[in-house]
Amino acid sequence: MLSVTATTTTLAGINRLVKDREQQQLQDFLITLVKPFLIQLGYFLSAVVIGIIMQIIVFLTAWGYFAYSDNIEVETNVFLPLLGLAIINAFSASAISLLVVTFIKKLTTLSTVSSIISTASGFFSGIYIPIGSLPTFAQTLIKIYPGSYSASLYRRLLMNNQLSSSFKHLSNNELIDFKKQLGIGYQWQSMTSSTQEFSVLIIALLAALLIVAFKSFFENRLRKDRRL
């Protein structure tokens, strides 16, 4: 849920860029000396803040519910790592959302794309169906979706103590099979580590921002050429 929350709320927050563009409000910023990429960066950072806040709210709500209904406890030593992951996840999800909306001009198109992404993010994060029960092709799609790696990192943090307790008398192979089934790491040549999954989020963040920066640069150059 935390992984999907970052995807959907940052996309909803950054949707304002498309609305302002279609309603010509973005033109008010473009006539100033502020560069287009910096304007987009403002939308991006606002989406990051929204993503962080919403992940915290979802976590506290879910934690309170499960603590009350099922007596599930969360170790306090995971709170700080969870906050760090929520921040990185919000940055990565916001960058991908910014990349998506920079190619969308109409609100009608935005509505359709948002609905698809919101639904697909739950599937690719392994919420609806355990990843290990899906066919190979579907598992491959999940492995190339950056949000699935944030979901895996959340599972690692929240399930680490329970896994250590539940599998202490079982073999390592049984633990690996369980992780493959639930998406706690993904099988490539070997199982991914938390460092590798964290790197995927950083790479997705930098790559998305780089593409947006290049797109803004070329659009700005084209706009200047037309004025000349």
Question: Which features would summarize this protein structure in a list?
Answer:
mainly alpha
Written description of the protein model:
- The protein is an all-alpha fold and 228 residues long.
- It is built from ten helices and no strands.
- It has helices at 2-14, 16-22, 26-30, 36-70, 79-101, 107-124, 136-143, 146-166, 172-182, 194-227.
- Helix 1 (2-14) packs antiparallel against helix 4 (36-70) and helix 8 packs antiparallel against helix 10 (194-227).
- The radius of gyration is 20 Å and the shape is elongated.
- The mean pLDDT is 86.
Helix content: over 70%
Tell me what portion of residues adopts beta-strand conformation: under 5%
Instruction: Note poorly predicted spans.
Output: none
Q: Which oligomerization state do the chains in this entry correspond to?
A: single chain
- Termini separation (Å)? 51 Å
Silhouette: elongated
* Class from helix and strand fractions: mainly alpha
Major sheet, described briefly? none
* E-strand count: 0
How many H/I helical runs? 10
Query: Which whole number gives the mean pLDDT?
Result: 86
Order of helices and strands: HHHHHHHHHH
- CA-based gyration radius: 20 Å
